[in-house]
């Protein structure tokens, strides 16, 4: 007796569940920070993730507690408005490195959910209080598509995937918009070795846009922001060919509000 397409699909689903159950029995899913079994990020660690209170965040660079006076960017942020979901420390730092280096790709939707929450909260506070100097965070429903800061060719070859593409695709499902895979990075030096000014020079000619984004409103996402150089470089190549409303949302904190191992980016 031959299986039809529906029967074959059911068999595949059952086999996938059995394999998942076997894997969970041998290598159980655990919280990336405390090791609690059963979930990638347990409720307690999620509550203590270091969320940025968007009510007090800098409306330009997204740094915590920079709404009135920001010592991180000093109101001299080099690219459009950034919304940060969390500070870079403990569990949030572990999430990034576990996704990138331990290949735990199931963390991509978790990080995307944090971004979606931050965008929603930031937009709500803009409605209530307004922005600063005409700058306002993006609304979740505003972008035409989501773009992402691309990995270098070397990083892609080493990992076998672009972690921010996975996050962007997960975020696109939350926000109900498409993904614009339009940015590529050429050869450049490792950003971890460079100062703020050297990072900007390093990326100035290494990022390019490879598709037509004329007239589009893009939401640009990245995992960690240190100096904003990567975001600024990507914005510069997009903005001449997209609407000036291009924005970014990043998962982690920025400026001096992050721990020094932010250089993992």
Keywords, please?
disordered C terminus, five-stranded parallel sheet, 265 residues, two-stranded antiparallel sheet, alpha/beta, globular
What does the model show?
The chain is an alpha/beta fold and 265 residues long. Helix content is 38%, strand content 9%. Strands 1-7-6-2-3 form a five-stranded parallel sheet, sandwiched between helices. Strands 4-5 form a two-stranded antiparallel ribbon. Strand 6, helix 8 and strand 7 (247-250) form a beta-alpha-beta unit. The longest helix has 23 residues, at 107-129. It is globular.
Walk across the major sheet and give the strand order. 1-7-6-2-3
| Uncertain ranges | 252-265
Report the count of strand segments: 7
The outline comes out as: globular
What share of the residues lie within helices?
A: 25-40%
How confident overall, as mean pLDDT? Answer: 77
Strand/helix succession: HHEHHEHHEEHEEHE
> In oligomeric terms, what are we looking at?
single chain
Task: Describe the main β-sheet briefly.
Answer: 5 strands, parallel
Q: How would you summarize the topology of this molecule?
A:
Elements: H1 5-26, H2 43-47, E1 82-84, H3 91-101, H4 107-129, E2 145-148, H5 153-159, H6 163-175, E3 178-179, E4 183-185, H7 196-204, E5 207-209, E6 218-222, H8 229-238, E7 247-250
Parallel strand pairs: 1-7, 2-3, 2-6, 6-7
Antiparallel strand pairs: 4-5
Helix pairs in contact: 4-6, 7-8
């Amino acid at each position: 007796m031959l299986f039809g397409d529906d029967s074959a699909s059911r068999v595949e689903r059952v086999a996938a569940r059995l394999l998942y159950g076997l894997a969970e029995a041998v290598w159980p899913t655990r919280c990336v920070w405390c090791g609690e079994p059963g979930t990638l990020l347990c409720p307690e660690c999620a509550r203590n993730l270091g969320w940025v209170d968007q009510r007090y965040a800098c409306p330009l660079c997204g740094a915590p507690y920079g709404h009135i006076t920001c010592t991180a960017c000093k109101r001299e942020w080099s690219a459009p408005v950034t919304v940060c979901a969390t500070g870079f420390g403990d569990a949030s730092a572990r999430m990034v490195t576990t996704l990138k280096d331990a290949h735990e790709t199931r963390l991509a939707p978790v990080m995307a959910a944090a971004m979606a929450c931050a965008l929603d909260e930031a937009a709500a506070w803009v409605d209530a209080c307004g922005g600063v100097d005409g700058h306002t965070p993006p609304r979740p429903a505003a972008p035409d598509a989501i773009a992402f800061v691309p990995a270098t060719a070397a990083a892609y070859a080493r990992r076998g995937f672009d972690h921010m593409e996975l996050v962007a695709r997960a975020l696109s499902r939350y926000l109900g918009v498409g993904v614009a895979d339009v940015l590529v990075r050429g050869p450049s030096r490792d950003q971890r070795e460079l100062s703020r000014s050297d990072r900007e020079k390093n990326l100035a000619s290494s990022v390019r846009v490879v598709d037509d984004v004329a007239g589009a409103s893009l939401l640009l996402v990245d995992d960690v922001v240190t100096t904003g150089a990567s975001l600024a470089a990507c914005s510069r190549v997009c903005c001449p060919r997209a609407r000036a409303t291009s924005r970014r949302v990043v998962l982690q904190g920025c400026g001096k509000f992050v721990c020094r191992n932010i250089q993992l980016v």
